[in-house]
Amino acid sequence: MNADGVRERAGSLPREPGVYQFREGDTTLYVGKAVDLRDRVRSYADPRSARIRRMVDRADDIEIAVTDTETQALLLEANLIKRHQPRYNVRLKDDKSYPMVQLTDHAAPRIEVTRDPDESATVFGPYTSKGQVETVVKALRETYGVRGCSDHKYIGRERPCLDYEMGLCTAPCTREIDLESYGEDVTAVERFLEGETGILADPLRREMEAAAEEQNFERAANLRDRLETVAAFHGEGGEAVQSVGDEQGVDVLGVAIEGEDATVARLRAEDGKLVDRDRHTLEAPGSDGGVGGEADGVPAVLAAFIVQYYAERDLPDALLLPERHDDEEVAAWLEAEGVSVRVPGAGREAKLVELALKNARRNVGRRDECGMLADALEIESARRIEGFDVSHAQGKAAVGSNVTFVDGSAEKADYRRKKLTDQNDDYDNMHALLEWRARRAVEDRDDRPDPDLLLIDGGEGQLEAARDALSAVGWDVPAVALAKAEERVVTPHRTFSWPSDAPHLHLLQRVRDESHRFAVQYHQTVRDEVKTVLDDVQGVGPETRKRLLGRFGSVENVREASLADLESIEGIGEKTAETLKSRL
What we know:
alpha+beta; GIY-YIG endonuclease; globular; DNA binding; UvrABC_protein_C; UVR_dom_sf
């Protein structure tokens, strides 16, 4: 695309905030944000760096998305960079993105929080806090009864599900509400998400006042907290949520760049004490200047890291940086969120920044353990690894763990666990666990990205069981096992005995040990839960509990069973079944 083409395209763009993408066919080359789309895109007609000039020359189209606010443009840019991994952007190598709310394109639309919205859906956001979004969505469902169930649960129902009984859904599935009336409720939800706060705040306020008059003070307090979240959702009440008093959490960042690789080291201080440290790699293409005010080098790396790293993490009270990031939109966002940003020149804070810089320099340009592992196993990448283990007591309270490591560090938000059918067979248990994970992946029911590698805790037998499950489902992901006794790495074609000090072996050991710890911890919880939870339900004695577990295998499966299935168990009537559903 030449300069005239850029100017012509820019001339048709609105003077509003938004995000733009330079595209080459179906490939996104670069994603940028703008306060004024027309002015920002026009600046690319005369790029101030050779790298950006090459990008513009390759592009054959420019796509835009208009946003309501500059903050939304900032967050949407981060999401698109994560999704498309454009070659000419600074890219943090993790998989987080900011949450959005979508209303699906169905006759009876479903509302849900997602990071990967459907193309046909009506989408709102992105937003900074997943917890806040989930609170608001629940309030919307309680007020307007919009369904949140999957299509699988919605289609073919003969009677409403538990959400209807709990007042979360008006049950369009069984036409407890006609589709025209349901559509009016969906329109009300859209009006709120478009910025009409009162359409949800007003009924919540009335309900809160009614609860207070009835002296139901706990309910009134819960509604008050929800009302505050709703009021702040569209930017209202910002001053009331600014942090006050002494800073409890401070993140310290250090940056080191070598070629097109960058490392950001993060130190975490709470109440004046260092409590955590980690390192993150970014791709920072080029270092020859920028365009439209977006400079390369340390400032660009800091700006990109801050937005992308905190996609699903709480912002600290303060950020200590080695130098200014020089991004006005990022600065405005942090200020609105109440984050103090400082570049200390002396004192203890300056020493913390220097320590972060030392940590960053220790990693940059060095062949990391993930790369070494990928080379040793002859696979494309080993950045994202999922570990699996099973635990039980002679076949009782059988469970499986699924932990996730990204760039060598535990990603606990992506941990999952599964209750398994009780059986004293580690191979069958591992087969069931991997079949569950694989089906969720191929049926697009797992919100995590596919891993680069699966690590099975065990030897050849466990690996074979896992691979059989993957093959049966059709999920093509490399899998290896790590046997405890001799620390041998078992693959489908050979066995490795790496030196005990090999960094890539240490990485697998960390994943294996964490999956084992997580499985044992969950097994202990389930073992206690089986003894107590069902016994606490009125009408369920030892014999009925035995029949329930014999039929469904675990408390989790009992929890997911329908009322009709529960009522089919001898000794359980309609009232006991309803009690079970409400208690579990």
